[in-house]
Amino acid sequence: MSLPTGTVTFLFTDIEGSTKLWEEHPEAMRAALARHDILLRRCITRHGGHVFKTGGDAFCAAFADAPSALYAALIGQLAVSDQEWGEIGSLRVRMALHIGEADERDRDYFGPSVNRVARLLDTGHGGQVLLSQASEEKVRDCLPEKASLKDLGEYRLKDLSRRERVFQLIYPDLPADFPPLQTLDRRPHYLPVQPTPLIGRERDAGMVQTILRKGHIRLLTLTGPGGVGKTRVGMQVAADLLEDFEDGVFFVDLANIRDGDALAAAIAQTLQVPPSEERPLTESLKAFLRERRILLLLDSFDQALAAAPLAAELLADCPRLKILATSRAVLRLRGEQEFPVLPLALPPMDRLPPVEQLVQYASVDLFLRRARAAVPDFVLTSENARAVAEICNRLDGLPGAIELAAARVRTMTPPALLARLASRLEVLSDGTRDLPERQRSLRAMIAYSYDLLSEREKTLFQRLSVFTGGCTEEAARAVCGMDGGEDTISAGLASLANQSLLRREEPETAGDGEGGGRILMLETTREYALERLNASGEENALRRCHAEFFLQFAEAAQTGMNGAERDTWLKRLLGEQDNVGAALRWAVEHGETEMSLRLARAWFRACRADWTDGRKWLERALGLSGALERTTARARAFAGQGVRAWLTSDLPIARAQIADSLARIRKIGERRRGETTKEAPQEVDDKSLVAASLHSLGTAARREGDHARATVLLEESVSLYRQQNDSRALSACLQELAEIAWQAEQPWRAVRLFAAAAALHAPLGLVAAPVEPEAYPQALAVLRTELGDRAFTEAWTEGQAMTLDEVVRGALAAEGAS
Q1: 295-317: per-residue pLDDT in tens?
Q2: In the 8-state DSSP scheme, what is residue 744?
Q3: Are 524 and 446 in contact (CB under 8 A)?
Q4: What is d(CA 495, CA 428) in angstroms, rounded to the nearest whole number?
Q5: How open is the CA angle 554-556-561, to the nearest 5 degrees?
Q6: Other residues' Cβ atoms within 10 Å of the Cβ of residue 483
Q7: How many CA atoms lie within 13 A of 680 on its CB side?
Q8: How many angstroms separate the CA atoms of 752 and 764, rounded?
Q9: Contact 296, 324 (CB under 8 A)
Q10: Looking at the DSSP assignment, which residues form a beta bridge with residue 249?
Q11: How far is the C-alpha of 650 from the C-alpha of 408, rounded, in Å?
């Protein structure tokens, strides 16, 4: 049956004290829980409800209308109370009803209304049925006979939003008297009201609670860049832990705190500890905290790092105290537990989910909620979904930045907003007036962290912005060149990472060439760093150094890919495709002809971007100066441009440019053959270029139906690829020959070549590699029919088992008797 959508009434239930009952009566509880589940499920379904989730002893049900939910709750309570529960004594079930808008996907519900009813249930006691004011308004005129509602007053729930007026269902056969509700009002606390619900952070909040409940954890610091949502997570954790701290949880804002005395005064003011003339305030604070079980939420500690020793002093003297801090930098105190708060989940742009599934990504969910706060009828459609997803990605999933962007839908559509985000720092300004100044614009969020850096850290931070898509530590040392040598760079990188301006991404596998992974900077942060780099006057020199480094790297990769470590080098080159591409763009735009042509070939091998864009940059490199007309660099670039033309199915241009490249190579060879310069053999003997050119021409000939010419070109290419141990290219070439064999009615040869191609390709793991016959459905389905299952399997097995030399001989051999 379809679940109710739009405005939904939720009924949540659970058993009070179930953990203790399980510990004391495990066998009896197993039978009791089974009977409990049957009773409640029957009551819910008979009144039109849908159980969409269960967990332990909890039920989550949805109803299309509130009266039906209330009847189900009443009948359920009566059914449970009427049962004999044996040695357990009684089973006390608490229930809560709330009505509101919710998003349904995959037969589950999400949104503030679901969180609200869960928080309402948390306040109740076994045997009690509670209703929010929204649900009370829907049932007050259609109550069951003899039933009434009791107004319990207004309370703050643990979701930290507005106060909720709570009602209790009264019925003659049900208990009516209960202890006070378990709300925030029950214990001492100071936690400011939050204007928006927690979105996409439930798992983080739960993990932090679990860590803080461990006895040996006294200090936990939530770290992360500005605008990532550290404060909101901390507030929710503190609210959820209220029952664990009988003397209260207290929020202290440290944004304007700079030293220990000011920190002591801020904490004392929040706890209402009066000053004393007889002793220092710090001692009064210790005396107050020493025997109390209190959680202090110290927010924005990054501004008060000089006062961190006082926090350590309080923890040492007050054994029942715990501290939850939020900071862009770790406090560097003994016993500190760090918990990084990461950006919100982002939808993948290369395989964007359907519109109805996009809201499952927290970043998109947040954008929609904030957009609807600005434009109530804003909806996600097929026309704007990709733009919304791209906006969230461009803003790195930072909640603060996404909220600023979503507010802009008042004046522009998502596609128009996306187009403006080329200048994120300019567009995302003028946030709400009730936010702190540091959170009212994207620039302010980042500048707040930048201003805390030392001068050397600022210099390194802005120099690192020259990299696109991150870098290795080796690249940072080579390009960013700080006084003091390698140790200075390493220390600076560690410091910037500790302050949440960088992060390290560990390599997935060994053999990345570095062993230390990559250094990454959020694009929003990088844009600010680029502004600072430009203002420093160093940008052009850094760009040149960056281009020279990646030229050396790319050419080393070209050599490495012709050796035993080919796969490792190819992965490294693919990992640096953004930096190689950026170096090429800089070289072309600054008229660096030789560098442009040399980078062009490397970028062709590395780039996975749009092939049309690749051709554009190659054409610009070739169009620079004619002074390098006779160099191999220019010949290589022509070959690369021709291959790109082939990949975009522009066969006439491909054929002409690749042929031109081969002619240039031959002319250079004739000119250099008699010379004695050391560079000549290396420049002429470029077998990889020749092999790739022949391969491209052969493929073009096959596509045009000239199988005889294609076979000659491809067979020569196979031999050259074998000499270089280039298994990836050899696999692609064998696939072309297998297609020709199939079309020439040579089925045994075709199957063997397909199998050999698959065996060569699969170990690389760089692209979708065919490893089974089903990977070539069109050709192999026909071939299996032609040969029969047994012969087909024999041919496939034989092809997969061939060595490289056997593959080459098989590629060049004519169809045999079999």
Answers
A1: 999 999 988 898 999 999 999 99
A2: T
A3: yes
A4: 28
A5: 95
A6: 7
A7: 13
A8: 20
A9: yes
A10: 189, 295
A11: 43
- pLDDT at 617 (0 to 100): 65
Place of tokens 């294609």: 710
CB-based contacts of 18: which residues, under 8 Å, 6+ apart?
Answer: 29, 56, 57
Is 29 in a helix, a strand, or coil? Answer: helix
Give dist(CA 276, CA 285) in Å, integer: 10
Round to whole Å and give the CA distance between 608 and 575. Answer: 11
Residue 370 CA to residue 431 CA, distance in Å, equals: 12
DSSP structural state of residue 3: P
Are 186 and 146 in contact by the 8 Å Cβ rule? The answer is no
54: which strand partners? 59
| Rounded distance between C-alpha atoms, residue 62 and residue 9, angstroms | 6
Q: Which two structure tokens, joined as six digits, stand for 533?
A: 């780099």
Q: Which helix (H) or strand (E) holds 62?
A: strand 58-63
> Which structure tokens are listed for 202?
């439930």
Count CB neighbours of 216 within 10 A: 6
Strand partners, 150: 168
* Residue type for position 8: V
Residue among 807, 789, 808 nearest 799 (CA)? 807
What is the per-residue DSSP string for 537-592? T-HHHHHHHHHHHHHHHHHHHHHHTTSTTHHHHHHHHHHTHHHHHHHHHHHHHTT-
Query: What does the radius of gyration of the chain's CA atoms come to, in whole angstroms?
Result: 34
Report d(CA 481, CA 466) in Å as an integer. 13
How far apart are the C-alpha atoms of 704 and 142, rounded to whole Å?
78
* C-alpha span between 298 and 252 (Å, rounded): 5
- CA-nearest of 165, 177, 104, 89 to 134 is 165
Which tokens hold the place of 396?
A: 């790195």
**Rounded to an integer, what distance in angstroms lies between the CA atom of residue 577 and that of residue 574?**
5
- Which token pair is 556? 């080393």
Q: What is the pLDDT of residue 623?
A: 65
Q: Specify the pairing of strand 322-327 against strand 295-299.
A: parallel
Establish how many alpha carbons lie within 13 A of residue 483's alpha carbon, considering only the half-sphere containing its beta carbon.
3
Report pLDDT for 485. Answer: 61
Task: Determine the residue type at 61.
Answer: A
Residues in the chain with pLDDT values less than 50: 509-515, 608-611, 627-628, 630-631, 634, 644, 646-649, 670-672, 674-685, 763-775, 777, 814-818
C-alpha distance from residue 703 to each of 645, 710, 733, 736 (Å) = 14, 9, 14, 10
Tell me the C-alpha distance between 150 and 131, whole Å: 10
* Whole-number Å distance between alpha carbons of 236 and 278: 38
CA distance 219 to 257: 19
Which tokens is 424 given? 């994120």
Instruction: Measure the N-to-C terminal CA separation of the chain; round to a whole number of Å.
Output: 59
Q: Letter for the amino acid at 813?
A: A
The C-alpha atoms of residue 818 and residue 816 are separated, in whole angstroms, by: 5
The total number of residues written for the chain in this structure = 818
Q: In what order do the strands lie in the sheet with 295-299?
A: 189-190, 249-253, 295-299, 322-327, 219-223, 336-340
Spatial CA neighbour of 527 closest among 391, 421, 403, 425: 425
CA dist., res. 236 & res. 256, Å (int): 23
CB atoms within 10 A of CB 7: 15
* Token digits of residue 785: 């029919």
Rounded to an integer, what distance in angstroms lies between the CA atom of residue 690 and that of residue 710?
Answer: 15
Token pair for 161: 């939003």
Burial class, 300, CB count within 10 angstroms (exposed 0-12 / middle 13-18 / buried 19+): buried
**What SS3 state is found at 737?**
helix
Whole-angstrom distance, CA of residue 238 vs CA of residue 205:
9
CA distance readout (Å), 762 to 24, 232, 622, 736, 765? 56, 46, 35, 17, 6
- Give the distance, in angstroms, between the CA of residue 448 and the centroid of all CA atoms in the same chain: 24
Q: Are 721 and 684 in contact (CB under 8 A)?
A: no
Using CA atoms, how far apart are residues 133 and 131, in angstroms rounded to an integer? 7
